[in-house]
Amino acid sequence: MRFQVIHGAARSPVVWWSALAVLCAILVAPLFVVDVPPLLDYPNHLGRIFVLASLPQDGVLARFYAPHWSVIPNLALDIVGPPLIHLLPVHVAGRLLIAASVLLPVLGTVAYHSALGGRWWSFGVGLIAYNNCQLYGFLNFEISIGLALLLAASWLRWRETRPAWAIVAALIGAPVLFTCHIMGLIFFAALIGSTELFRLYRALPASRVENILRAAAERGAILALVLFVPVMLYALSALEQLHGDALFGTADKVGHFLAVFVNYSLPLDLTTAAMAIWLPVLCLLLRRGTIPGPAGIAMALLTVTYVAAPYSWKGTSGLDMRFAVMMAFMLFAGFLPGGLPNWSRFAIAIALGAAFTARMALLTTVWATHATDLADLRTVLAPVQPGQTVYVTMAGLQEVLPYWRDNPGWRRLSNGVRTDTHLGALVLIEHRAFWQGEFDFPSQQPIVTLEPFNTLARRAAMPHERGEALAADLCGFDYVLLTEADALPRLPTDRFRLLDQAGFAALYAVTKCAAK
């Protein structure tokens, strides 16, 4: 079946494509103002792919780590990143991966919306291109969400008119999604499953029962075929072997959903959330828009799953939050406004454009300011040599409450989440030295930490606040890197010798490894 075009396509395709190109250019512009953007987990991921690209030729890094490839549904960066690092400087390659994680969900949203018959509303997705998962550095997840939307768009367009194309694309795409991130596969399954359910529903009035049953069996078999390989891969993965100890976090699912819109200004974030949610709701109430059946079923399914999902399961944290991100993208992918007066369309465009401009201007300013912290960090790390070991510690939220209350916005998001926890990875990336925080979970990353460094890392697991560092056994570490040093007293001279301090960071030599 074909979906009705609700609000008319642009009269000139050139204008539409030009607008999309401008949107994408604005979204990647912040990547030019700083070489290590303040995305929480990103430095850690970049450190891992740097190691994978360097092994086994680099004898220094080979003392610390070894590759440990297996069936892992979380490998987008680990597969694409190392070849890029062989071709480009590490921080250029890293920013290309960030650009992919930002642009793929945007392009997927636009493609899905267009497949439903929409046109301009999907451009509002720019408001959530830098959503909470993106700013937390969950790049594999973001990449998989974008690919899932692109594949679902091809399913919408071709499933009835060119079924062979749609099925082949899905057969190839499903294992790719599993490899990138399992949540992207779940999103794709929800999208194409909803499409098949809707088409069966539309056929009910005009078909006999036996025909409906036959069609349901055929469509179900095709879906099973598409998902067969990923299911087999999951059965072989280490993730399947983990205990399913679900942890349910906050019961405030509404507030948790609003966290998707987190940026660096709470009033601006709440305004963005209000526009993204209430504009579609208002249009639906006024009968000035619609949610086509395939998108409606998917959105309902995602909502129910989000409400029921735990916060973490099988070692994956923020599980329910990821369903919230999917729901937020569907607000722009699945809703089609229509029949709006010209003045209201103009007003909506101005409002969305103003919010988008404000969010991007703020994010770019914050990232540019973050460069000062990076400069401080690099200054103090100058003495660190390849093969040495660095213990990273930082100012805790409770250790210096006034500092964090008045803290400049580039070190924390508007919901209080700090983004500097993994900056110690620059020790590994730029100095080829060991730090204790590298991600090496067997079910999630294809790398293993070798002894004696594995014991060292486990004994000094991240994150550690300054107070904990003072009591820690630091035997085996050459240095202590202290971040937020501008808010903390110096480390005691009986165990540590200050080598250099520059604003945000300070480096100490360990002179006595254990406290009395």
Describe the SSE topology.
Blueprint: H1 13-28, H2 42-54, H3 59-64, E1 65-67, H4 76-87, H5 90-115, H6 132-135, H7 139-158, H8 163-180, H9 182-203, H10 209-236, H11 238-241, H12 253-258, H13 266-285, E2 289-290, H14 293-308, H15 319-333, E3 336-337, H16 342-380, E4 389-393, H17 401-405, H18 425-431, E5 434-435, E6 447-449, H19 453-459, H20 466-471, E7 479-483, E8 496-502, E9 505-510
Parallel strand pairs: 4-5, 4-7
Antiparallel strand pairs: 1-6, 2-3, 7-9, 8-9
Strand order of the largest sheet: 5-4-7-9-8
What Rg is obtained from the alpha carbons, in whole angstroms?
Answer: 25 Å
Mean pLDDT value: 89
**How many β-strand stretches?**
9
Main beta sheet, described?
5 strands, mixed
Structure described in brief:
It is built from 20 helices and nine strands.
Structural notes for this entry:
The chain has helices at residues 13-28, 42-54, 59-64, 76-87, 90-115, 132-135, 139-158, 163-180, 182-203, 209-236, 238-241, 253-258, 266-285, 293-308, 319-333, 342-380, 401-405, 425-431, 453-459, 466-471; strands at residues 65-67, 289-290, 336-337, 389-393, 434-435, 447-449, 479-483, 496-502, 505-510. Strand 8 and strand 9 form a beta hairpin. The longest helix has 39 residues, at 342-380. The protein is α/β, with parallel strands linked by helices and 516 residues long. Residues 1-10 have low confidence and may be disordered. It has 2 domains: 69-340, no CATH class; 367-510, no CATH class. The strands form 3 sheets. Strands 5-4-7-9-8 form a 5-stranded mixed sheet, covered by helices on one side. A two-stranded antiparallel sheet has the order 1-6. Strands 2-3 form a two-stranded antiparallel ribbon.
